Amino acid sequence: FNDQVSNDFNTLFKNLPQQRIYYATAVPGSFCGRLFPKQTLHLVHSSAALCWLSKLPNEITDSDSSACNKGRIHYTDAPKEVADAYATQYSKDMGNFLHARAQELVENGLMLLQFPVSNVLLDSDVDPAKVFELIGTCLVDMAKVGVISEEKVDSFNVPLIYPSVKAVKEILRGCDECFSIEWMEILEFKNMVSLPIGQIFVSWFRAALQGTIEKHFGAKIVDKLFERFAEKVKEFPDIMNTDKLKLDVLFVLLRRKNKFSTSNSPVPLNICHKMYKT
Ligand SMILES: C[S@@+](CC[C@H](N)C(=O)[O-])C[C@H]1O[C@@H](n2cnc3c(N)ncnc32)[C@H](O)[C@@H]1O
After folding, report:
1. For residues 17-23, average pLDDT
2. Among 78, 273, 257, 249, which Cα is nearest to 169's?
3. For residue 256, which of 112, 38, 105, 95 has the smallest C-alpha distance?
4. Over pLDDT 70: what percentage of the chain?
5. C-beta of residue 107 within 8 angstroms of C-beta of residue 41
6. What is the helix (H) or strand (E) element at residue 41, kind and residue range?
7. pLDDT per residue over 68-99, tens digit each?
8. Could you tell me the pLDDT band of residue 241, with boundaries at 50, 70 and 90?
């Protein structure tokens, strides 16, 4: 298992099924860097994690930049420059992830990736990131009543991205020296997740965002924020309608090519994708 060092690995190990016979271990650290010795892995699986950026692009909190994202907490409905800044960071992160795993996998080693994708620019009626807009309005309301400062809200952004399939393909093409694409399939998100009950929907997003929110605002505001969010979800129940969700899951199976040298030279990835309708 791998996760960031802040992850509660003890809880993970306590919850593993006792009756299953296998050896479990954990390697903490960002998957955007090296985690394992060279040429030691036969199979890598990453699920629902490659949508997290390793960091927020600096320009989105720089008030002098055209990519400044004041008044929003995500690139949903933001100017094109904000979406471009997210996309550039994503491209760097994916490049680093692929390069690191290329070093660690044995020749012909396999890598199974699945992560959410969206082929629409996220400004339409019901899209996956509309939820961030709703959470953003809760934070703004809390700033208005003085629970948190306006500056804190302005400097908060969610480091999650739903890239287009086209963008992912471009990044993978930039790495074709190391990996061949053995399989690529789009799975329908709505068939995988069903969250029709408000409280489950709220808990799901709380599980995903609590750490990021606590880090920025402190632990005290989390309960209040998600109570407000639960009220907003009641007001806008359409947000839970997965039929309208413009989100899919991309499954990719990569094979590490034989001839790739495991020298430390970085894989060239001069790609800066854009997240437009394709
Ligand atoms: C939505 S959870 C998915 C968990 C699990 N893989 C699953 O499919 O149920 C995403 C996880 O990715 C972790 N994560 C995000 N960015 C990461 C990074 N750069 N390195 C390691 N783990 C990361 C988060 O901490 C979180 O635990």
Report:
1. 88
2. 273
3. 105
4. 85
5. no
6. strand 41-47
7. 998 889 887 788 999 999 999 999 999 999 99
8. confident
Q: What is the pLDDT of residues 212-222, one digit of tens each?
A: 999 999 999 99
Phi-psi region of 131 (alpha: psi -120 to 50; beta: other; left: phi over 0): alpha
- The Cα 44–Cα 68 span in angstroms is 36
Q: Summarize pLDDT for 54-70 with one digit per residue, the tens.
A: 999 999 999 899 999 98
Domain locations in the chain as residue ranges: 31-256
What are the residues whose beta carbons fall under 8 Å from the beta carbon of 21, sequence distance 6 or more? none
For domain 31-256, say whether CATH 1.10.760 is its number. Answer: no
Average pLDDT, rounded, for the chain: 86
20-26: list long-range contacts, CB under 8 Å, 24+ apart: 25/1, 26/1, 26/2
Whether the per-residue pLDDT at 132 is higher than 70: the answer is yes
Residue to probe by mutation, ligand 1, list 1, 2, 4, 115, most atoms within 8 Å of CB: 4
Atom of ligand 1 nearest to the CA of 207: 1
With a Cβ cut-off of 6 Å, ligand 1 is lined by 2-4, 7, 30-32, 47-49, 52, 54, 208
Closest C-alpha among 33, 81, 31 to residue 52? 31
Spatial separation of the C-alpha atoms in residues 91 and 89, rounded to whole Å: 5
Residue type, 164: S
Segment 5-9 shows an average pLDDT of 92
- Give DSSP secondary structure letters for 97-145: HHHHHHHHEEEEEEEEEEEEE-SS-S-SSS-TTHHHHHHHHHHHHHHHT
User: What beta strand segments (E) does 134-193 contain?
Assistant: 179-188
